[in-house]
Structure of YigZ family protein:
Amino acid sequence: MTEKDTYKTITKASDEVLFKDKNSKFFGYAFPVTTEELVKVHLEDLKKQHHSARHWCYAYQIGKTENEYQFRANDDGEPNNSAGMPIYGQLQSFDVTNVLIVVVRYFGGVKLGVGGLISAYKTAAQMALEASKIVTRTINQDIQLKFEYKDMNKVMRVIKEKNLKIKSQTLELDCTIIISVRLKKSKAVLDAFKTIFNVKVNVLKN
């Protein structure tokens, strides 16, 4: 089984969406995020924007592969699992990551019940993702090559043949090049450089 080396995410914040049910208003937002600090920033901004709302419920998932996923779902005072998990379910349904969805609720005076809340938060989250541009990104591996200047031509030949992207390079008597390789191609690229005598190859942690 080949390792998955793509993931889906969004490139910019969605437009605001609005779902109404029995006078309650549910404003939905989707944001691209890569850290929990960014999650806090967006939540603080929305709490200022919607200072008179009752609930700011959210879910996010961060990471590019299942092994590194970090996620959280928050009901923010709504009944357990009636808000955060339905929102998180839409992240899973759309198969996106590095995304935060926030649904802001203004209570309309009529209780919706747990079933109604689940449906409303799910719908607002779905609408926010439908209002977003979802893109597919490749998961890349950074590889560091260290070699002497005399081996430059051999190294550059492999880089050219395999159409590799150079991220940085220092070309002196001792040379260092960092290349970015799509995950599923990394083994073949590593093997190619290991055949060149005197080239030190290191896989960098992204």
About this structure: Residues 113-130 form the longest helix (18 residues). The chain has five helices and eleven strands.
